[in-house]
């Protein structure tokens, strides 16, 4: 795990259209998972910021998350 969590600096374009409250909520959610050992990737961060901005609804967020899990599992099995 990286020593410093600065997700906004890594993908600033994903946070550009978020208001302050949504930005803080997204960063806190991602940081919580990061402290648990998860390494954020662009796809997951984009999905969460899209949901926070209202670009996608919960059903679409869940569909995207399930797809990401399926792809990661397929890679782990193949690898």
Description:
- This protein has 5 helices and no strands.
- The chain is mainly α.
- α3 runs antiparallel to α4 and α4 runs antiparallel to α5 (58-78).
- The mean pLDDT is 93.
Secondary structure layout:
Elements (H helix, E strand, L loop, with lengths): L6 H4 L1 H4 L4 H16 L6 H12 L4 H21 L1
Give a quick summary of the entry.
The protein has helices at 7-10, 12-15, 20-35, 42-53, 58-78. The chain starts with 6 loop residues before the first helix and ends with a helix.
Instruction: Give start-end ranges of low-pLDDT stretches.
Output: none
Structural class: mainly alpha
| Secondary structure tally, helices | 5
Return the string of H and E elements: HHHHH
Whole-angstrom Rg: 13 Å
**How far apart lie the N and C ends?**
22 Å
Largest sheet: none
Can you give the helix content as a percent range? Answer: over 70%
- Beta-strand portion reads under 5%
Shape: globular
